[in-house]
Amino acid sequence: MSKKKILGDFQTPIQLARNVISRLFAGGHPWERILEPTCGQGNFIRACIETASVREIIGLEIQESYVGKSRKIRSEAVKISIYQQDIFDINLAESLQWNSVSPLLVVGNPPWITNAKLGRLSGENFPKKSNFQRLSGLDAITGKSNFDIAEAIWLKLLHEYANDPVTIALLCKTSVARKVAQYVLDRKIPVNSMSLYRIEAQRWFNVAVDAGLLKLELNQGEISYDVAEYDNLLDANHTKTFGFYDGNIVADLESYRQVADLEGTSQLVWRQGVKHDAAKVMELTHRDGILRNGYGDLVDIETDYLYPFLKSSDVQSINSGFVPRKYVIATQKKVGQQTVHLRDNAPKLWRYLNLHADQMDSRKSSIYKNAPRFSMFGIGKYSFQPYKVVVSGFYLPARFVLVSEYQGKPVLIDDTCYSLSFDEEWMAYLICALLNHPKVSQFLSSVIFSDSKRPITKGVLERIKLNAVYEQANIDQLTNRVTDSFGKSVNFDRIGVDKQLQLFESGE
Ligand SMILES: C[S@@+](CC[C@H](N)C(=O)[O-])C[C@H]1O[C@@H](n2cnc3c(N)ncnc32)[C@H](O)[C@@H]1O
Q: I want to staple 84 with a disulfide (CB 3.0 to 4.6 A). Which of 67, 253, 270, 365 is the partner?
């Protein structure tokens, strides 16, 4: 990996640095002192000396060549000190020598690189691999092994300036901004204002990530953990506020408050679809009565083990005239079931699987270790129930679809989708109608961050309290809507509905 990548070295274009500074100083903020913790070639410093109030700037940078470039910046009115320094080697609040104690702004663009990448590096370009791993509380913010070094820098600043009236404004991924917001809430760090101004990372850095300027004020007033979100850096007004409601992070607080009564625990169990990690072998296309695998080979196997199959894109486009595009081989009826019986019960399938044993046996995920040969996951009784309400994990707004058996066979879904399974059609129909209620859409769009890689997860779906929707919904209107989309209606067992929903309520 190049040194540039190792150090997360994407220098901020001067125009973006100027936009950031004019955003921050708008409204006449009187910062006199600036700390640029990873100053690179110094574009934030250049933008800062153009302001009226700044008197003193300290820039830190690990790379000598950049230190040299930053040291060339001159100003009559501003004292600029640039140090070659790994920021993880010093305590920022204690070690830096300032001329005054006037208001401090920490501004910059720390490296956008994950520690997982860093772990793969030789270390020679990143002195001592930097000391960031020793920071206390890092686990709390990251939770996982893969996190951004920018997160570690945020954490360091928050701890070292915990008692000072400091404003910190750093460009970072929006995912990092959310973790920082969660972190300050969990640790009750005295934050009194947070704003996230989105930037076009593609335009400025040629990278396809969601990013923005997170500005956070410490020790300057009443504590608040709400984050005002602006669509663009220079917008005058924010479009929404994200924050926390009963400890849960919520993407749009105002919208969420209107539907917060839906927050609860689903008494129905959401299931993720099947996982097999061998699409070319296990997923077959069906055209003109011919089955082919992902290698384009003709496949002749016992159809007892073949099921119509839906992937996320199918779920988005499915309608009443549904004809499956794909089929999936189901080697098991439940997780862990032995598969050797296939040798006698489905000899053609057994031969086919053995023909592709190399690929099946080399599946990387640890879940396949010590599992019966040709195993799959995300499979159980629910996979084979005749009626399902299905949603893709990838698309917003969420579209819940009713999927019935196809030619007498239950339809299976892939692991990018989630489903509820039913034995009775009317029940699936009702639940599908409830889930497509506008309040559910509002609930989901208010809790979900649309830039998440997989916006809809099992965790989010399990938060929808269907009883609350049912109590408020006009069932006839709702079921008419499902009827319109699926081209057929279903007779309800009204007594059954009430009984069933009471069961959800009591959690039986
Ligand atoms: C994304 S670049 C941004 C540079 C500059 N802040 C700007 O906005 O143009 C990140 C900078 O952090 C520097 N850097 C990386 N790790 C550092 C560390 N541990 N201490 C100080 N600087 C570091 C890199 O050399 C690089 O110049």
A: 67
